[in-house]
Structures are given as structure tokens and as C-alpha cells.
TrEMBL record:
GO terms for molecular function: ADP-dependent NAD(P)H-hydrate dehydratase activity; ATP binding; NAD(P)HX epimerase activity. Homotetramer. It comes from Galactobacter valiniphilus. InterPro entries: Carbohydrate_kinase_pred_CS (IPR017953), CARKD (IPR000631), Ribokinase-like (IPR029056), YjeF_N_dom (IPR004443), YjeF_N_dom_sf (IPR036652). The lineage of its organism: Bacteria, Bacillati, Actinomycetota, Actinomycetes, Micrococcales. The gene is nnrD. CDD domains: YXKO-related (cd01171). AMP binds at residues 432-436, 461. This is ADP-dependent (S)-NAD(P)H-hydrate dehydratase. HAMAP family: NADHX_dehydratase. Keywords: ATP-binding, Lyase, NAD, NADP, Nucleotide-binding. Bifunctional enzyme that catalyzes the epimerization of the S- and R-forms of NAD(P)HX and the dehydration of the S-form of NAD(P)HX at the expense of ADP, which is converted to AMP. This allows the repair of both epimers of NAD(P)HX, a damaged form of NAD(P)H that is a result of enzymatic or heat-dependent hydration. PANTHER family: ATP-DEPENDENT (S)-NAD(P)H-HYDRATE DEHYDRATASE, ATP-DEPENDENT (S)-NAD(P)H-HYDRATE DEHYDRATASE FAMILY MEMBER. Residues 10-240 form the YjeF N-terminal domain.
Length: 528
């Protein structure tokens, strides 16, 4: 898991080391190291060697398009940096001088009058140019740029960007230029990912010290592009850094959460999922959830649906045992259920909501999705097995309204919103979005960043719900065999794993829309 911190926490945690370096007569110690990391990422991208490897992480487990420039080597490459007034600009100047020393045609475009003079002097000494943004030479350099480094503002940015040089230069950069942000795209809020329309988008962001939450939340997810982390050992004071805002689950960790059946297992020992879903108005959601559960791997699917949805469901999912809705959760077909999924296409008639309430009153693990969220009530006590709730931002807002809860807004403060809801409801709350956050009642948050916008289709949430139901059922069965219940931490991890797998499945799906996602999941997980 990769920890992610608020940008403001990283900024606070670097202050003592920076002050100490300055007091020791070495004020540029960390700037030089950050610049070395930035230049090294650019050189590697160009297939050029020349700098000893810094601590650069491999790609962060966040779904991105990686842009590759044609050609090889750095010699003669036209690299231009927007350079601002603070240390971010200083990083850019130092990185440019490293590239200039290796033969790049390096140009700093000063977007403010104030800038880091030693960095500018070093760039000139290495053969690079330093130009004011207002002059014609800067315009010409920008118009020919192959690589554009955004070093205008870093974590010291406050308010909207007011950098006339940046504003004027932006339209003149060729669309083909590789845009690389130094630490954060200029003007992006590094805590929450808020950004006004003036924030320039990057293809790649090279960030320093630790990953900043704003790069993964809100607009940051698309503005930051591919992420590279350059660690600067000794820079950050752990006491000031505090706990991560959240941690990103890797693909490997997600894949490892899927249990393979043991040779001696039978359908009941493997895990039975009780599916309370589908209604005459929404028969398809139950089918989508069922396909995803079967693709993830359950021993048996016991579905409880009503009206004409029963026929639709039986026809589509021949291996499921299909019962009447009123038989959940007490009928014979429910006796072996290890975990429940309630909600996809459930409907909101009184009988639908009654069924959801009955399932929530059991002490089996349950995924609560879609309209079943309407029966969730606050709880002072955790149930023996916590619930996994799967709202998107709109559903979480509706839940807060119904309960009269004063939770932060899930769109602008998703980490705080999911955490507040998890605490108030004593449940694991999986807040769906382009970055999906999974909060546990004890306050820890995990994140899944594998999803792309192709998941923004009706029915993809039903697929996620089925996937999550299968993970819960198989793990609950395994835990029961070991004589223990699933705890909140396990449920949270399974929630995050499911969200990561959902995003990965979309990359393997044979077509667009929600229906092919289950095939993508089968392809991803192989026979289980
Ligand atoms: N420190 C280190 O050794 C290390 C730090 N690192 C690097 O330092 C970066 C942080 O540097 P930083 O603290 O100097 O802040 P930075 O983001 O460059 O800008 C602040 C300047 O911009 C100005 N300004 C602010 N908002 C503005 C606006 N809206 N419109 C216009 N101007 C605005 C602001 O002016 P002020 O408002 O204070 O008058 C101030 O002059 C960090 O992101 C990383 O890249 C790495 O090298 C690792 C080691
Ligand atoms: N822009 C996006 N990028 C990545 N994932 C997305 C995006 N939009 C939606 N998703 C994912 O798609 C799913 C949509 O779920 P939901 O809104 O419940 O849809 P439905 O109920 O119609 O099936 C969620 O898992 C969400 O995280």
C-alpha cells in the first residue's frame, strides 16, 4: 500500500529539514535533490542515461495514459520550463541546468519578476537561457517546445493563479509537447484536488517526498497525469507528517484478495452469496451483479427477487438458485448464505425496503448498495460483522440529508465525508468515484485508483456490487472455517480490493458498457 498525505502536511513536515539545511549553509540541499529526481525522470523518459538513479518510484498504481516521446536521447531536445517565484521555480531551474549540461536546448521562461537567482545563474552557466515571459523570445521558445516543465507554483500556491506569463504562454505550447509538472500542477490544491480552470494539465507529475492527496482527488486525478514519486530521504519529519490521508491499494494486493478454491472444497465451503436484488422495474441490475459475482468466484449464488424479475434472472443465470424475495433472509435457500448483497435493482416499494431491513438485521456480512442504502440507520454499536456500504457521492449526500447528518460534502471533501459516515454508521463506507475511497469506522481510509472513465456507465456499480459480494462471501466462508468472523479491517481491505479489480476488469472488457465488465473480470482473474 502506498501512503498518501495532505499536501499541507508534506509542506509542514519538510520545513525543519529545510531550515536546518539553510542554517548549515546549504540552503539548496533539497532543491538540488528534487531537481535531480525531476531531470532523471525526463532523461529516462527520453531513453538517455547520465544521472545516478535517485529514489524514483515505479509508476504509482493509478490508471493513466503514459505518453512516450519519439526519438531517443536528450541532446538537442527543446525543453522549456515555466519558472515561478518560489522553490518550485528553483527546482525547475536546477533541473533545466542538469538537462542543459547533457546537451538539451534548455530555456527558462520566468512567469514572475521574482525568481531564484542562483538557479538562473547555474542554468546560464550550463548553456541554457533565462527569458522573461513577456518578450518575443519566450514566445518563440514555447512555440517550439518538445518538453514543457511546469515549475510555476508548487505547494506554496495560494488562491487562484495570478501569473500573467503563464497565462500568455499556455496557448503557444504545441499540443504535442510532453507536459511535466514539478511537484504539483501549478495552482492545484495539493490537499483536496480542487483547481480553477487556469491550472495547467500535465501528462506526468514528478512529486517530491510523498504522494500528495490532491494529485489523486477531484480535478487532480486528471490534471496530474502519470505520477512519479521522488523520495527525498531525511526531508520529512514523520511527527509533523502524521498519518496518511489514505493509502492506495496496489494491483497485486487486490489480486491477492481473491481466494482460489482449495482442492478439497465444495460449493458450500467455498462461499455462498445471498443476492437480494432485481425487481420488475430493474431486472438487469441483479443479472449484472450475478455475472460479476460468478466471475469473481463463489461456490453458489442464492438469489431472492420478485415478480417478473425472477423469470428474467433464472433465464440469464441458470446456475443460481432463485427464490421469492419474501424468503430472504430466513427461508431454506438462505440457510447456507455466508454474505449478502442487497440493493442492485432492488426497487423502492415497501416490500423491497422491508427485505433490505431484514437482511441488515442478520449478523452476516452484507454489501449494502443502491436503494438499500435508504434503510441504513446510524448505530452507536458496531454490528458483530460491519456492513459495507457502497454509495456514490449523490447517494452519500442523500443519506446525510435523510439522517440529518452534518457530514462534509462528498464531492469536495470525499475523505472526510466517507470517514464521517463510517464513524456515524459504524460501517465500512466505500465512496465510489474516479478515485474510490473506503473508510473504516476507526478512521483509516484506503483508496482504489485503477478506474477509468469507461466505468461511468449505468450498471457498472451493479458489477462492482456483485464483485464485492463474492469477495465477502468467499472470505466469510474461509473465516468461518477458521472459527472467526470478518472484522472491519478485513472488510475495508476487501472493499478496496474489489474497487481496484473493478477498474482493472474494465481494461480487459471485450466491449463498452457494463455488460462486458464481467467478461473482463473473468479474463483478469482466470479460472478460479
Ligand atoms: N523547500 C525545499 O527545499 C523543497 C521544496 N520543494 C519544492 O518547493 C515547492 C514549495 O516551494 P515554496 O514554498 O517556495 O512555494 P512555491 O510553490 O514555489 O510558490 C510560492 C511562491 O509563489 C507565490 N505565490 C503563491 N501563490 C501564488 C498565486 N496564486 N499567484 C502568484 N504567486 C503566488 C508566493 O508568493 P507569496 O504569496 O508568498 O507572496 C511564493 O513566492 C514544492 O512544491 C517543491 O516544488 C522541493 O524542492 C523539495 C525541497
Ligand atoms: N469518471 C470515472 N472514472 C472512474 N470510475 C468511475 C467514473 N465514474 C464512475 N466510475 C465508477 O463506476 C461505478 C458507477 O457506479 P454507480 O454510480 O453506482 O452506477 P450504477 O448504479 O448505474 O451501476 C463506480 O464504481 C464508480 O467508481
Amino acid at each position: 500500500m502506498l501512503p498518501v498525505f495532505l499536501g499541507s502536511a508534506v509542506r509542514a513536515a519538510e520545513a525543519p529539514a529545510i531550515a536546518a539545511a539553510a542554517a548549515a549553509g546549504d540552503p539548496e540541499r533539497y532543491i538540488a535533490r528534487a531537481a535531480h529526481g525531476l531531470a532523471s525522470v525526463i532523461l529516462r523518459h527520453l531513453g538517455a542515461a547520465g544521472l545516478p538513479a535517485p529514489e524514483v518510484s515505479g509508476p504509482v498504481p493509478v490508471r493513466r495514459e503514459v505518453r512516450v516521446l519519439g526519438g531517443a536521447g536528450v541532446r538537442g531536445r527543446r525543453v522549456v520550463a515555466w519558472v515561478g517565484p518560489g522553490n518550485n521555480g528553483a527546482d525547475g531551474l536546477h533541473a533545466l541546468s542538469l538537462l542543459a549540461a547533457r546537451g538539451a536546448e534548455a530555456t527558462a521562461v520566468l512567469v514572475t519578476e521574482r525568481h531564484h537567482e542562483p538557479g538562473a545563474a547555474r542554468l546560464r552557466a550550463a548553456g541554457g537561457r533565462v527569458l522573461p515571459a513577456s518578450g518575443p523570445a519566450a514566445g518563440r521558445a514555447l512555440a517550439r517546445a518538445e518538453i514543457l516543465i511546469d515549475a510555476a507554483l508548487g505547494t506554496g500556491a495560494n488562491g487562484g493563479i495570478d501569473l500573467p506569463g503563464l497565462e500568455a504562454g499556455r496557448p503557444r505550447v504545441p499540443a504535442s509537447a510532453w507536459r511535466i509538472a514539478c511537484d504539483v500542477p501549478s495552482g492545484l490544491d495539493a490537499d483536496h484536488g480542487e483547481a480553477d480552470p487556469s491550472v495547467p494539465a500535465a501528462d506526468t507529475t514528478v512529486t517530491f517526498g510523498e504522494l500528495k492527496a490532491g494529485l489523486l482527488l477531484g480535478r487532480g486525478r486528471s490534471l496530474a497525469g502519470e505520477l512519479r514519486l521522488v523520495r527525498l530521504p531525511g526531508l520529512l519529519d514523520p511527527a509533523l507528517l502524521g498519518d496518511p490521508a489514505f493509502s492506495v491499494l496496489s494491483e497485486r494486493e487486490a489480486m491477492d484478495s481473491v481466494l482460489s478454491p482449495r482442492p478439497e472444497e465444495h460449493k458450500y465451503s467455498r462461499g455462498v452469496l445471498g443476492l437480494v436484488a432485481g425487481s420488475p422495474a430493474y431486472p438487469g441490475a441483479a443479472v449484472l451483479a450475478a455475472h460479476a459475482a460468478l466471475a469473481t468466484g463463489v461456490g453458489m449464488l442464492s438469489a431472492f427477487t420478485r415478480g417478473t424479475a425472477r423469470l428474467t434472472f433464472s433465464g440469464a443465470i441458470p446456475e443460481a438458485v432463485v427464490s421469492r424475495r419474501e424468503d430472504a433472509p430466513d427461508g431454506a435457500a438462505a440457510s447456507r448464505v455466508n454474505a449478502w448483497l442487497v440493493g442492485p435493482g432492488l426497487g423502492d416499494e415497501p416490500e423491497d425496503l422491508d427485505a433490505a431491513r431484514r437482511v441488515l438485521a442478520t449478523d452476516a456480512p452484507v454489501v449494502v448498495d443502491a436503494s438499500a442504502l435508504a434503510v441504513v440507520a446510524p448505530s452507536a454499536e458496531p454490528s458483530p460483522v460491519p456492513r459495507l456500504l457502497t454509495p456514490h457521492a449523490g447517494e452519500l449526500r442523500a443519506l446525510a440529508r435523510r439522517l440529518g447528518a452534518d457530514w462534509p460534502d462528498p464531492l469536495t471533501r470525499p475523505v472526510a465525508a466517507a470517514t464521517a459516515a463510517a464513524k456515524a454508521l459504524c460501517a465500512v463506507v466505500l465512496l465510489k468515484g474516479s478515485t474510490t475511497l473506503v473508510a473504516a469506522p476507526d478512521g483509516g481510509v484506503l483508496a482504489a485508483c485503477s478506474a477509468g472513465p469507461e466505468l461511468a456507465v449505468a450498471g457498472s456499480g451493479d458489477t462492482l456490487a456483485g464483485l464485492l459480494g463474492a469477495l465477502l462471501a468467499t472470505h466469510a466462508a474461509r473465516a468461518a472455517a477458521e472459527g472467526r468472523p470478518l472484522d472491519a479491517a478485513e472488510l475495508q481491505r476487501l472493499g478496496a480490493a474489489g474497487a481496484v479489480l473493478h477498474g482493472l476488469a474494465a481494461t480487459r472488457a471485450p466491449g463498452r458498457g457494463a455488460e462486458p465488465l464481467a467478461a473482463g473480470l473473468r479474463e483478469l482473474l482466470g479460472p478460479r
